[in-house]
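Notes on consecutive records. When two proteins share a document, each keeps its own sequence and its own token line. Never mix them. Below: protein one.
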Amino acid sequence: MLHVNENYAKIKPTYLFAEIAHRVAAHKEANPEAKIIRLGIGDVTEPICPAIVAAMHRAVDDEAGRENFHGYGPEQGYAFLREKIAAVDFRSRGMDIEADEILVSDGAKCDCGNIQELFGPDVKIAVGDPVYPVYVDTNIMAGRTDIRLLPCTAENGYVPAPPADCDADIVYLCYPNNPTGAVATLAQLQAWVDWANARKALILFDAAYEAFIRTPGIPHSIYECMGARTCAIEFRSYSKTAGFTGIRCGYTVVPKEVCAYDAAGNAVPLRPMWTRRQTTKFNGASYITQRGAEAIYSPEGQAQTRATVDFYLENGRLMKAALQALGYEVTGGGDSPYLWVNVKGDSWAFFDKLLKEANVVTTPGAGFGRAGEGYIRISSFNSRANVLEAVERLKKIL
């Protein structure tokens, strides 16, 4: 008889944002005239910048004729994009990352979930609490339930230090953090790198929001730390950097030195394994998409995407100021698109209150783990008019 993967029974039956969508749909059906402002899921609202649009139009024209037509591309990504990534995102900041250590994909979420296929079923996982659900759920789906929770609280600035008794083999770190909006200092990340190298452990570093960092000295990459090339894999995304949530493109950096170990204790490089996995299960992001991503690195693309990120940061500043004026403790903003708001009560109840009384969608902190209870996450991705209107609505009911 056909058996199911029973590990699926160990995770919540619906993904966090699917549950939010269900509640919003029910509210909309009951209140068809309501103008709902969505500040929950971190989906962008501003148009793709002109430099990217122009590059993608040119790429479409390439596909219209035999001379410049592109079919299957390299699963690792086209060299024209990988070289730009290595030069601009890393070498310009003093980091020794080469193009052949970069593998382009259709987004960081997929890579964060798929990377766990490289590791044995018995590895011990550590994650922050609260946490982006994908890190936990994908491991549980694969049968790994030995997961350590690292408390991320106001007291530690939502950046845990490596506990002396932490025996994890893999730790997921995300900074700027989703959901709390917190950032980590170089010293804080260096402590984790030193811990990982001492234990022969691995850091999976999600840098999806690095483009929002504006505070000098805050690291944009784990590879700014000494020794990170031997113990860290980094994920990057164009979703928030350049508005690619509907286009889908990102990349993962796997340095040649980073290894896991076989049963005999022999070091096994992970870059060839990730390459093998991608070439087997993934046909690569489209040529048109990768030409658009390449345009992000042009002078025009850099200026235009930064202006859009600054626009979202200003949205966050306006909402943070309003919430603080109402007496709420708020983390995030400034270097992140997310605000983490202490509501001092049931987070789903507060979510429902904002939805039903103000027609404003947020994200309940409980959806990010037990330490998220009592908080909501607010996204700064929206139009300025909607943000200003949301602020006024919140003032009326709070």
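Protein two starts on the next line and is unrelated to protein one.
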Amino acid sequence: MRHLASRATVLAAATLAGLAAAAAPAAADPVELRVATLAPPGSTWMKILDKGAAKVSDKTEKRVSLKWYAGGVQGDERDYVRKIRLGQLDGAAVTSVGLSMIDESIRVLELPRMFASIDEMDYVADKMWPYFVAKFEKKGFKLTDRGEIGWIYFYSKSEVTTLDQLKGLKLWQWGDDSIVSAMYKKLGLNGTPLGVPEVDSALQTGRINGCYGSPLTTVALQWNTKIKYQTEMPMSYGIGATVMSLDALKKMSADDQKTMLDLAKKMGKDIRKGVRKDNVEAGKQMKSKGVKLTTTPPAMVDQFTKAAEEVWNELAGKIYSKDELAMVLKYRDEYRKKHPAK
């Protein structure tokens, strides 16, 4: 009897140990997040993103790593969003054009001739960002902190000081950019739809003789070597952000998610700071290499601004709601009231 009791005790202990082992969560496998961007290797954006990826790996003790596909090797931004939805990528660092393929209403933050200063744009975007974070989550994406492109100017091989001269150019038009498309149509501009990776060769061959971008993107993508002039008047202010699939985030623990998203927020701030500084330096670099900044006459500014305001209202209810446009104007005017022009 004593022998049977002993055997029963051993079996019971073994059974309990087995149940405990089965109930205990298995050690999580390392998670590698595949993230794409058009930003070229070595650019301001990639230096900060690579540094952030190293910090994510370090802070999570290598449980989470980010593999960046830079320089458009995964295609254009439309390809990134499609691949995220198919599970072939886990995220992407994109411009507002890429963001618009998830929820187009975010483009209300990038309307042409909307903002008079960076501080004004920051104020409005910071007020509205939580609103867009919630909209993106409903569509299965985590929208991280705001990134930056900067003031967007026209660049060309010939000088542009009138709207008629601008109309005479063969201008690049990002095929997926509905706002630029609307502006071109309103102003009667001659746009050639192309993806970002196609612009350099199109400038080289003469398929186009004008494009648009920030000073930093123009230098980073080497378009500056193929143009001679930049307009003084900015068309708009370009923003961006990194988006991640919510399904991809669920592969990691809650603590690791928080760590990565906290670091992503810091990366957004670092990118804004770095890009603003480097846009100034890129402008100086282009000037030293012979790119001429042409004065935009008040008449051309007025024509462009009038057309832009008409486009704002025409796109309300199509790309963004009338309420969302009203929100932007409300916060912009709120900022201007607090900071009257001197």
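For the record: The first helix runs from residue 2 to 23.
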